[in-house]
Design brief:
Layout (H helix, E strand, L loop, with lengths): L1 E2 L4 E2 L13 H5 L9 E5 L2 E4 L1 H17 L4 E4 L2 E2 L3 E6 L2 E6 L18 E10 L5 E5 L1 H25 L5 E10 L2 E6 L2 E6 L20 E10 L4 E5 L7 H8 L5 E10 L2 E7 L2 E6 L20 E10 L4 E5 L16 E3 L7 E3 L24 H8 L1
Parallel strand pairs: 8-10, 13-15, 18-20
Antiparallel strand pairs: 1-2, 3-4, 5-9, 6-7, 7-8, 9-10, 11-12, 11-14, 12-13, 14-15, 16-17, 16-19, 17-18, 19-20, 21-22
Length: about 375
């Protein structure tokens, strides 16, 4: 019992500032003075706990006033913005301070947590805090952009064309794969995945897996880096010498026919040329009389130059030579102007394994890549 204006007033144990009320603990404090707040007058009601709450609130408001971020749960809204409560204070967030840009549907924020910084604190007529969530959002965005810019600057300072880097495949598209290299997205175009070409990126690369790539191009201004996977892989012609030799018989497919011969795909990335003179023992005016595109054939390698990426093939070398293999004689007009014809002697046949020389527009012995480039 405490003396108050010559009257004892009971301090309810619920209003005592302690976690668990223990009567014996307070019996030992008889005679001590304690600070109390009158929270009701009829009848008189005292509280020790509310004094502590007020002091804590005042300390919190002081920190908020100094710029500390605080949180509230939106409890309502009006035409001007959102409302909430923080202790004994009313909190008001103007609509323009909710986020960047115009907010149309204020009711969607009711019940949601708001992160705020103070704009103004009013205590004259009623205790009110006017606050903004927008400033926090914009500060975080600016900080994030600054961190990203610093990271990009560090990345571009450390990477160079022809560097070999390790990257993780994050996602793929129809035109290539986006690979994370030290946290920066680089593009590996589908044309730089394989020397023999692929239909889908996933035929070569697996999402979530790490690979080594070669840096092909850097555009710091556009924030783009191009990398290649095939540049670190052996080309088909680099391995051709280990797989093929002159005199070998190969099985391939006719992929292109030109007036002077046919190109045969020996394997992906390696093509050989069968000159028209090496298709048949019979004289052919045009290769199309004996071959069609897509036709599979066997041929003998007459000449192999892996450095120049050229392979000369012969189909007739695998076929028995007919008894009358001489070419049909061709006739030409005499030069005496009398219109007489004379018979040309047939040319001597060259050995089966020997390459017949040709010169079709100075294309003799060129690779399919050379010819395709010249004929395109």
């Amino acid at each position: 019992m405490l003396p108050l204006a010559k009257k004892d007033v009971i301090l309810d144990k619920e209003e005592v500032d302690c976690e668990v009320y223990n009567k014996d603990d307070f019996n030992a404090k008889l005679g001590e003075e304690i600070e109390l707040m009158v929270v009701a007058v009829n009848p008189v009601k005292l509280s020790q706990k509310q004094i502590k709450q007020i002091k804590e609130e005042e300390a919190a408001i002081a920190e908020i006033q100094s710029g500390k971020e605080f949180e509230v749960v939106c409890s309502g809204f009006n035409k001007g913005g959102l409302t909430a409560e923080l202790g004994s204070y009313t909190v008001f967030v103007p609509a323009r301070e909710i986020r960047s840009g115009y907010v149309k549907e204020l009711d969607k924020y009711v019940g949601k947590k708001l992160r705020l910084k103070v704009i103004e604190i009013k205590t004259e007529r009623r205790k009110e805090i006017i606050a903004s969530q927008r400033v926090i959002i914009e500060e975080e965005r600016a900080a994030k952009e600054a961190a990203r810019a610093a990271k990009e600057a560090e990345f571009f300072a450390s990477i160079h064309v022809d560097d070999v880097v390790e990257g993780k495949v994050e996602r793929v598209t129809a035109f290539g794969a986006f690979v994370s290299v030290n946290g920066f997205d680089c593009l590996a175009h589908i044309s730089d995945l394989s020397w023999t070409g692929v239909k889908a990126v996933t035929d070569v690369l697996e999402i979530g897996k790490k690979y080594e790539f070669k840096v092909l191009k850097i555009d710091e201004e556009a924030k783009k880096v191009s990398i290649g996977y095939k540049q670190l892989q052996a080309q088909p012609w680099d391995l051709a010498a280990e797989k093929y030799a002159e005199g070998d018989v190969i099985h391939g497919k006719v992929v292109r026919i030109v007036p002077f011969g046919a190109f045969v795909e020996v394997e992906k990335g390696i093509d050989g040329l069968v000159h028209v003179s090496q298709i048949s023992h019979e004289f052919l005016e045009n290769p199309t009389t004996a071959l069609t595109i897509g036709q599979e054939i066997d041929a003998k390698i007459l000449k192999l130059d892996c450095v120049e990426k050229k392979m000369t093939l012969s189909i007739k070398a695998l076929e028995p030579k007919p008894e009358n293999a001489e070419r049909k004689p061709r006739v030409a007009k005499a030069e005496d102007g009398e219109g007489k014809e004379k018979t040309r002697k047939p040319r001597a046949q060259k050995p089966v394994d020997e390459v017949t020389e040709w010169n079709e527009g100075n294309l003799g012995g060129v690779s399919i890549a050379d010819l395709l480039n010249k004929n395109s």
